[in-house]
Amino acid sequence: xxxxxxxxxxxxxxxxxxxxxxxxxxxxxxxxxxxxxxxxxxxxxxxxxxxxxxxxxxxxxxxxxxxxxxxxxxxxxxxxxxxxxxxxxxxxxxxxxxxxxxxxxxxxxxxxxxxxxxxxxxxxxxxxxxxxxxxxxxxxxxxxxxxxxxxxxxxxxxxxxxxxxxxxxxxx
Length: 172
Hints:
With 172 residues, the chain is α+β, with helices and mostly antiparallel strands. It has one domain (25-167): START domain (Alpha-D-Glucose-1,6-Bisphosphate, Chain A, domain 4, 2-Layer Sandwich), CATH 3.30.530.20. 24% of the residues lie in helices and 37% in strands. The protein contains 3 helices and 7 strands. The protein has helices spanning 39-50, 53-58, 145-167; strands spanning 27-37, 61-64, 74-79, 86-96, 102-109, 115-126, 131-142. The chain is globular and about 45 Å long. Pfam families: DUF1990.
């Protein structure tokens, strides 16, 4: 069987690039917000991210093939309202669970998604000052005529939704 993270599944080549330097040729963004202080807050926020709290809290979660994010999980989000909504398929690329100060996961776009790219949802703990930050990092480019036509409006919408994702996380 083909590895779930290889081959034609993804609509882009730079699989896992949100772990480091974002690839050229895409729109990039990183949004970070302080959630508060403490290791307990970090652990709670990390668990909520892995259980799709960001997507559920914003109201775009459709379904996932696993109850918590793990590499290879198929995930769909609903973008839009009612009959105009688009079901956008994604697959979890990696999970951040081996670093004691970062938790989260990234998913990449599959055929049928209106964008091409990857998005990382994470929480970071800084032991130097005990601070906890929610972070959304992404790179993308339009996959359809209507996202290309939307241009700057689509980019603005991505940033607004990223801010709403971060607002779903616990604070202290």
